[in-house]
Design goal:
By secondary structure, the chain is α+β, with helices and mostly antiparallel strands. The chain is built from three helices and twelve strands, in the order H-E-E-E-H-E-E-E-H-E-E-E-E-E-E. The structure holds FE2/S2 (inorganic) cluster (FES).
Length: 198
């Protein structure tokens, strides 16, 4: 049942590609309905926060945004995907995220503010490639017991759906979670901690 549900999600799976053009920091979003409130080029290069609309990201989908010229992945995790997170701990290098980089308010079992929303810098901690999202719980050529996550084809690093790195791969750390907060139920601002966060 869980597999079926995620497969359906996969068919609807869509990634909004973004690209940085030249030095201007202009971001092109391939999906019109995924609204990104862009800062000016000057503000973007200075690291201004980016507010993104997440209301139309369906369960199981990942959408890619840009912030500080880096890819930011936002995944709407399904209950089926979430249920596998604690079951992966014994296969991971840093399951409690003690050595990895995330805000304090995201150093928890799901590495997030709300369990269903994963927000991360989509850069492999090995040599900086951009991993693929492999959200389906199904055998993959690189792992017959795959439970969903991120796969970096460059040198075969693997991460679970909380972007925690597997043991026995070249990447040393979990992927980075940036500061972010929920502006409201359908908007996230990337680059700013929640009010009152330490
Ligand atoms: S850059 Fe990802 S595995 Fe090497």
């Amino acid at each position: 049942m869980a597999d079926e549900s995620i497969n359906k999600g996969r068919r609807r799976f869509l990634t909004a590609s973004t690209a940085v053009i030249g030095g201007a920091g202009l971001i092109i979003t391939a999906i019109p309905f995924v609204e990104t409130w862009l800062p000016s080029a000057r503000a973007e290069s200075a690291g201004a926060p980016v507010t993104v609309a997440i209301g139309k990201i369906e369960p199981g989908q990942m959408v890619r945004y840009g912030w500080r010229s880096q890819p930011v992945f936002v995944v709407n995790r399904t209950p089926e995907q979430l249920q596998w997170l604690p079951k992966q701990d014994s296969r991971l290098r840093d399951p409690e995220s003690k050595e990895s980089d995330q805000p304090k308010y995201c150093q928890n079992a799901t590495r997030s503010i709300k369990p269903e929303w994963m927000v991360l810098i989509g850069i492999c901690t090995h040599l900086g490639c951009v991993p693929d999202y492999k959200g389906e719980v199904k055998p993959e050529p690189f792992d017959p017991n795959w439970k969903g996550g991120f796969y970096c084809p460059c040198h075969h690093s693997r991460y679970d759906l909380a972007a925690r790195v597997y043991q026995g791969v070249p990447a040393p750390l979990n992927m980075v979670v940036p500061p972010y907060h929920f502006v409201d139920d359908t908007h996230i601002q990337i680059g700013v901690d929640p009010k009152g966060a330490a």
